[in-house]
Write a structure and sequence with these properties.
Helix content: 25-40%
Largest sheet: 6 strands, mixed
Number of helices: 8
Strand order of the largest sheet: 6-7-8-3-9-10
Number of strands: 10
Strand content: 25-35%
Distance between the termini: 22 Å
Shape: globular
Radius of gyration: 18 Å
Oligomer: single chain
Structural class: alpha/beta
C-alpha cells in the first residue's frame, strides 16, 4: 500500500492473524487477513456462522487483541491499546451496535443513551440533553422516559443505535444489527443506519447474514477461510 492510500484509510489491517488456544490445540480464525476501509465507506461483511465476523469487529473495537499483524483504526494502533486506553478509544472513536440491544432494564431510554457520556465524566444534565437529541435522530423523542420493557424490539434497537452514536464516534461497528428483527422492522432499522451514516459522515462496518441489505452498502466482502474477498 502506498502512503497516499494509507493516509486516506480510516481502517487498515495488514497480515492479521488471530489464533485461539484450547485443550485440542490451536484454532486459527484469521490467516494473513488484509482490509482497507476509506473514510466514509459503508462496508458489509458476509460469511457463515463461525467464520470470525464478530471477532473481526471485536479486534477493530479493541475488545480483542490480534495474535499478529497490523491493525490501525481511527488513527490508533489497536494492538497496543490496553485497559483504560482501550476503553477511552471505544468511548470516543467507536460506536458499537450489537444484535441484542443490551439496554439496562431499570433505566429509561434517555438514561441508557446517556451512559457513554456519563462514563467519560460528563455532567448528567448535559449527557441527558445529548441523549434526547439522539433519541430524536432515531425517531423516539416521545419515548425518552420509557424503559426498555415498555418498547418494541425495533424501538429497543433504535435506542441502542442512539446510544452507539451519542459520543459522535468516527466509526460505527454493527454486529448483525437487524438479526433479531422481523423483515419489515429490519429494513426500517437499516434505512435509519444508512441515513445516520450519511448525515453524520460515519465510516461503518456491518456484519450481516442478510445479503439483500448488504448489497445496499458501498463495499461488500465475504469472510472465508480466514481471509476477506469481494462478495
Amino acid at each position: 500500500m502506498n502512503a497516499l492510500q494509507e493516509r486516506d484509510s480510516i481502517i487498515l489491517i495488514e497480515g492479521l492473524v488471530k489464533c485461539y488456544q484450547s485443550a485440542r490445540g490451536s484454532l486459527t480464525i484469521f490467516d494473513s487477513l488484509d482490509l482497507t476501509v476509506r473514510t466514509g465507506e459503508m462496508v458489509a461483511v458476509l460469511g457463515r456462522s463461525g467464520a470470525g465476523k464478530s471477532t473481526l469487529l471485536h479486534i477493530l473495537g479493541a475488545l480483542d487483541a490480534p495474535t499478529a499483524g497490523r491493525v490501525v483504526c481511527a488513527g490508533a494502533d489497536v494492538a497496543a491499546l490496553k485497559g483504560r486506553a482501550a476503553a477511552e478509544f471505544r468511548n470516543r472513536k467507536i460506536g458499537y451496535l450489537w444484535q441484542f440491544h443490551y439496554l439496562l432494564p431499570e433505566f429509561t431510554a434517555a438514561e441508557n443513551v446517556a451512559l457513554p457520556l456519563m462514563a467519560r465524566g460528563e455532567p448528567s444534565n448535559a449527557a441527558l440533553s445529548q441523549a434526547a437529541h439522539w433519541l430524536g435522530e432515531v425517531g423516539l423523542a416521545d419515548r425518552a422516559g420509557h424503559k426498555p420493557g415498555e418498547m418494541s424490539g425495533g424501538e429497543q434497537q433504535r435506542v441502542a443505535l442512539a446510544r452507539a452514536l451519542v459520543s459522535n464516534p468516527e466509526i460505527l461497528l454493527a454486529d448483525e444489527p437487524t438479526g433479531d428483527l422481523d423483515e419489515a422492522t429490519a429494513s426500517m432499522v437499516f434505512d435509519l443506519i444508512e441515513r445516520l451514516h450519511r448525515d453524520h459522515r460515519l465510516t461503518s462496518v456491518l456484519v450481516t447474514h442478510n445479503e439483500e441489505l448488504a448489497r445496499r452498502c458501498t463495499l461488500v466482502l465475504r469472510l472465508e477461510h480466514g481471509r476477506l474477498k469481494p462478495a
